[in-house]
Amino acid sequence: MKNNINFTVIENGTLIPITTRHGSYPNLMYLLKEELQLESFGECGGVGRCATCVVKTSGITGNSALKERNEPATLSKLGFEEANIRLSCQIYITTDLNDVEISILEV
Fold first, then answer.
1. What CATH number does the domain containing 77 carry?
2. Which of 44, 62, 67, 81 could hold 71 in an S-S bridge, CB 3.0 to 4.6 Å?
3. What percent of the chain stands above pLDDT 90?
4. Distance between CA atoms of 30 and 26, rounded to whole angstroms?
5. CA 28, 33, 38: angle at the middle one, nearest 5?
6. Closest Cα partner for 20 from 31, 8, 4?
7. Are 61 and 96 in contact, with CB atoms under 8 Å apart?
8. What is the pLDDT of residue 1?
9. Contacts of 26 by beta carbon, 8 Å cutoff, 6+ apart
């Protein structure tokens, strides 16, 4: 469908195609947690403090590429300074995710 958002998630070396719609979840963390049944993922509920939802993105654009709120400080505490390392709870489900590759990192 025209309004679908399609991207690929890599978890433990497995490529998982995801199709969703704008606003279908509050953020990427909730989508990943529900769709992939991830345990111990997103423990703080999406406020950007626990860093249990760290992902590596490839190809993300637009406003979704910007780090805001608690995200830079939380990632810095763990030694992540790269622009493509993100907290999935801080990424909204928008067309910015079309054709993006998202790798779930173990922290």
1. 3.10.20.30
2. 67
3. 79
4. 7
5. 140
6. 4
7. yes
8. 55
9. 46, 92
